[in-house]
Amino acid sequence: MKVYELLTIRNLNGMHLIAGMMGKERDVKSVNMMDAPDIIHYLKEDEFLVTTAYHLKDDPHSLLDLIREMHIQGCSALGIKTKRFIDQIPEEVIELANELSFPVIELPLHLSLGDIVNQTFRAILDRRAAELSFALETHKQFTNIVMQGKGLPLLLRDLSRMIQRPVQIVDQYFRSMYRSGPAQDFPCLKDRMSKFPFGKRPVSLSFLTDRQTYTFFPVYISERKTGFLMIAGEVLKSDPFTLLTIEQAANVISFSLIKEHALQQHGRSMRNDFFLQFLEGSFSSQEEIAGRAKEFSLANDRGYLCAVGKLDEYDLHTSYSELPGKMEDIYGFIEEETAGADSNLHFFMRSGCCILLFEAGEYVTDPFDKVKSKLVQLQTKVSQYFAATISFGLSNWCDTFLQVRNAYKEAEDALCQGKLVKKKEYIHTYHSKDIMGLMRRLTREDLENYYSCALRGFADPAGQEEQSLLETLFVYVETHCQISETAKKLFVHRNTVVYRIEKCEEILGRSLRDPETTIQIRMAFRVKSLLEKV
Predict the structure, then answer these.
(1) Rounded CA gap, 209 and 190, in Å?
(2) What architecture is domain 444-533?
(3) Which of 229, 97, 240 is nearest to 174 (CA)?
(4) Could you report the per-residue pLDDT of 278-309, keeping only the tens digit for each?
(5) How many Å apart are CA 275 and CA 279, to the nearest integer?
(6) Cα–Cα distance measured from residue 19 to residue 227, given in angstroms and rounded to the nearest whole number
(7) Distance from C-alpha of 218 to C-alpha of 231, rounded to nearest angstrom
(8) Do 89 and 66 form a contact (C-beta atoms < 8 A)?
(9) CATH topology (fold) of 283-431
């Protein structure tokens, strides 16, 4: 209840607002009666104080201190019965009340303080009862919509009709999830909005793009995710029934989204478990694999391209204990980005990496260009929303789902190759399919012998200097023996690279100007990568 509404209570006729007109919008949540000079210590915020001013009759100017203290305390208003112990309120008291926008109400003689207190309490309780009844009825109406399986779009449509405003639900990244109707439109929220300090209370923001104000009510999706019920226009506290309607809708929406999220997580877990078992070779036959894959919309007779992504950990400004949570948030974001936009893209997770499986469809023509374009978009959004970078390894095209296991290994190898040359936010394509395929046919003993022979002296580097030389050698041969390019990738001086290469030649006993030597060394590094995975 507001101060100005006190003056409209039927049984309290005769009350007049004589000062502090600008404060008539103050809330009144309770009422108290002054029966002692130290009443200020017992007053609460939003409380209406009534008095006969008996304790102030000998010093009317002490009203100045009382009004100041009540204003500081956040009280609603002061009601004084004049013509009883004080003939009139001093002019300086009225001036102070006007200055502070603190309402002062003149109480009529025919009303006792007890009647004023009782009638005010009754009006406050009646208002609260009406609001509670309205809230329960509204909550019941919205709950019935969800329980009957009509879904959130219908709930939003009813809410929009009740409050006469467009509404929609957005997730924590301000991507639209549900909206009240196709004709409604909202401004594009930039990445900075995701960093706005939203709390548990609704927040109103204005946008220059359409010169419109929007109010955001938090809705909970899961323990780590909070979305928003977005209302066109500012929702004022002076409109309690609209506020109650929206709050009840937000409560029902939260329950519905939590349930929906739990079901989605269960489905994702089942799909991810199947794919991990497939990669680990846990199924007994190809027929079983094809049958199970079909359950998750993975047809065996279609081509696939596999991308393995991993966060560039040295680029993350996150403590070790917080890293798993941040990885979960980022990979979850990528999954949501891919799930809603593309039915030919499948998402999985394994060992701190995310796996994107691009199915033949829109990617069948110029697959690498379209896939790389999609991955670049994901990298850009991860950088914008999380201030982190992610890199991808990309496989060659495979003709059936049964070949995806090899495609995954290729993508993983490509990711490792990019990491070895100290890149970040890269997309590295697997280029050595035929050679690596042949290498996988060799025994581990043969691979170890080849590595030891090609990198004689570096087979088991013990010291930090040897590790540094080996790393420089790898980057040097990968950049086709370009001194300047090697220095650039290693962030060292050109002369440092020259010195290290000369040291490597001494250890190897061979010149790195010989093309056959560099080919053997490049192959040895491929063998090392393969040995670490076998």
Answers:
(1) 11
(2) Orthogonal Bundle (1.10)
(3) 229
(4) 999 898 888 899 899 998 888 888 889 999 99
(5) 6
(6) 44
(7) 11
(8) no
(9) Alpha-Beta Plaits (3.30.70)
